[in-house]
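Example record used in the benchmark description.
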Amino acid sequence: MRNILYFCSPIYPLMIRLLTFILSFTLLSCSFPNGSTTCSNNSSDSIISLDTAAVETPQSRHLSIMMMGDIMPGTQHPQKYLTPDDGKTLFENITPLLQKGDFVVGNLEGTLVDDSPTTQKAVNSFSQYVFMIPTRYTQLFKDAGFTALAVINNHANDVTSLGIESTRKALKNANIPYSGFKADGGYTIIEKEGIKYALCAFGTSPNGNHIDNIAEATKIVTEADSIADIVIVSFHGGCEGTSARHVPKIREYFSNGLSRGDVYKFSRACVDASADIVFGHSPHLCRAMEIYNGRPIAYSLGNFCTPYCMNIKGIMGYAPVLEVIVDDKGNFIKGKIHSFKQRQGKGPVPDSTNAVVKEIRTLSNEDFPQTSPFINDNGEFTIK
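Model output (structure tokens):
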């Protein structure tokens, strides 16, 4: 863990203290106009601070971590699939909830790249669907209350390396922390209100941290835990579609023969390596949850905001927000599944029937009878 030294002893002359502080601050960070500081978003020894003022931290705190699955708010390829208001109201029904969270993260399903002859030419010919999200949509995430994004998934390479670089640049310009690309190291540390969070994102795509390399993944998680107070692992893995509702506890393969990981083995290994929360996405529907060694694992949160180019009928349209309450050391206290559902061409809306709660509860009891959480009708869950 990196030590931070505060030069406050009265034995030092004032000038020496001031010069030392300036030198240390310069070496450790770069300044942003909004007052937050960071060296970069691309190395394991940098800390991204989202604090704009000094924070007095109480001795014990309960923190709300909110997570969701795939987010693809619109694409510009092969034609424009964007809402008439350019996405401005996509998150309007979810923003009040997200802005109550201490840390909010979802999976960016696609690339942030603007439509141009150059980008059209760079489209990956192996991608059946290409998600080319306008770079200006970073503002939608900021306005909705997202703290960070996971970026490695099977659409991260839709516009090849050009799309990856555009995504990295757009998120850095918007000061949105992210994790998943190999070029940016294994994890990102974000400091907010005196708490250091580590986001470690994994997937099954080139240029990303791969869930099949469990030894490397556990090394990343352990190292992140040595720096952060709370370690959050995101993974994009598992097969897709209604036949993939259950966690098989073996390695899964896509129809083209590509590995989609052994999400059960991967997730439990991450907890064993000191992850506090593990959540998944990729199957485009929800899967079971379990509480393993006192830490929650959500094997898939499905799609959250995919108004175009995806099937959102029936269970494919469930769009939960998973809220996990932990203390400032990452210890699980309780949680809640907030029920939302998707609409074609629009953003998610609350679901008064709590259909996704019933789905996740059923799957959890079936797939993990010994370790499934107790989930009540309102979506609140605890350890059994």
